[in-house]
Design a protein that fits this description.
2 domains, 410 residues, 6-stranded mixed sheet, 6-stranded antiparallel sheet, alpha/beta
């Protein structure tokens, strides 16, 4: 899998860009705020339909174009892609329209996805392009909140498994409806019979998500452990990824909660093929906590409350690990993600590395760049190409990014 051409219109600081991309590794270098990160963001957005940086899709539109008096402003992101199944055209349109009846220049915003020039649902965009993104803030996968770790699982799985992605979308809709009904019941309205219908949906869809996440974490954990033990720490440290599904109302103390979550994670990972057993556990948990959920107006258990963590030699890496250990674990996780995607799809994902090389010491940097050079296609950004060896520079295509323009160095 590799991109042959990238086209951007009214995206970030690119008014118009037409860029041919070669096989192998491309180094995008230049000063800050010139557009290097925007190029990676565009590719990642076409792969996942999400930006790793912007909270709102409307922020992706070129500022000058978005402020123009035209009634309709369209941003376009297009890639020409070659895969084992042939050549593909993947496009996302960001459409801003002035509301005719709005005040103070209000706008409406919508997205439109196209695959091979045919309009598709947004969910059908996923999986056409597969990427692994490296960011300096990936350390938050260890130190940050559970929502970031759930997001990582969901984005990674959605690039590979369209069934999982549809199930996740349907689960989120059912969860929203169930929570709305719980709020009504808390106010003395609504129907318990209708609640049972939504609970059944949550159990059916949620048990599928739990099983798929458990399988994913088991597979990627095995590869991350191998890379970390053999290639990063020379057999000195062992890491483990532990799934912590919210399948029960937790105990009162923190230690009790952690022990219960760890036990549940082990149980799900052993029984991930037994959907009926997982569904029964989820139904039991929802039934037991239903009075509390009605009082709170929200669903307290289920995949939307899942978490996972990394331990090193049996200790929580987020709480007890050094910065260097945390970076090693994240690197092992990301490299494992690359190998896992290739094993599942038969194709290497495209690697996107945004200013991460400087984050690692020489040994970790060497390991990472070896993966980069072995990839079918990789794009990495840097402000200073002088940080790379002459041998590495001889094997890559170097391009300068300046003020929304890209030019090859040779």
């Amino acid at each position: 899998m590799f991109i042959t051409h990238l086209s951007l219109t009214n995206f970030r600081n690119f008014g118009r860009l037409e860029l041919d991309l070669p096989l192998g590794t491309t180094l995008l270098h230049g000063n800050n705020a010139q557009g290097k990160t925007n190029l990676l963001e565009a590719i990642y957005y076409l792969a996942t339909s999400r930006s790793p940086y912007a909270d709102y899709d409307s922020h992706l539109l070129n500022w000058d174009a978005a402020q123009a008096p035209e009634p309709v402003v369209v941003g376009r992101l297009i890639i020409q892609l070659t895969t084992q199944s042939g050549d593909h055209h993947v496009e996302m349109r960001l459409i801003q329209e002035k509301n005719r009846n709005g005040r103070n220049g209000q706008h409406s915003f919508r997205r439109q996805a196209l695959v091979n020039r045919r309009k598709v649902r947004l969910i059908e965009l996923l999986g056409n392009l597969r990427v692994v993104l490296f960011l300096p803030q990936d350390i938050q996968l260890i130190t940050g909140p559970p929502s970031g770790r759930r997001r990582y699982m969901d984005i990674t799985l959605c690039q590979i498994d369209p069934i999982y992605c549809r199930t996740l979308s349907n689960y989120n809709k059912a969860l929203e409806q169930r929570n709305a009904l719980l709020r009504q019941l808390a106010d003395g309205q609504g129907s318990l019979e209708v609640l049972s219908i939504f609970t059944d949906k949550i159990v059916d869809l949620g048990s599928q998500l739990l099983a798929r996440r458990a399988e994913f974490l088991e597979n990627i954990a095995r590869e991350a452990q191998r890379i970390h033990y053999e290639e990063l720490t020379q057999g000195q440290e062992t890491i483990r990824l532990s799934y912590r599904p919210r399948l029960r109302h937790m105990g009162s103390s923190r230690s009790e909660k952690m022990q219960e979550l760890d036990e549940l994670g082990k149980w799900v990972q052993v029984n991930y093929k037994d959907h009926k057993a997982i569904a029964a556990r989820l139904m039991q948990a929802l039934t037991e906590i239903q009075p509390i959920d009605i009082n709170r107006g929200t669903t307290s258990v289920g995949p939307h409350r899942d978490d996972w963590l990394i331990t090193i030699n049996g200790r929580n890496l987020g709480s007890f690990g050094s910065r260097g250990q945390q970076r090693s674990a994240v690197l092992a996780l990301k490299l494992a993600e690359i190998n896992w995607m290739e094993s599942v799809t038969g194709e290497k994902p495209i690697l996107l590395l945004d200013e991460v090389v400087a984050e690692f010491d020489e040994r970790r940097r060497t390991l990472l760049l070896n993966y980069v050079l072995k990839s079918t296609q990789a794009l990495l950004t840097a402000t200073d190409p002088g940080m790379f060896t002459a041998d590495f520079m001889a094997q890559v295509t170097s391009m300068t990014v300046e003020n929304g323009r890209v030019r090859p160095d040779h």
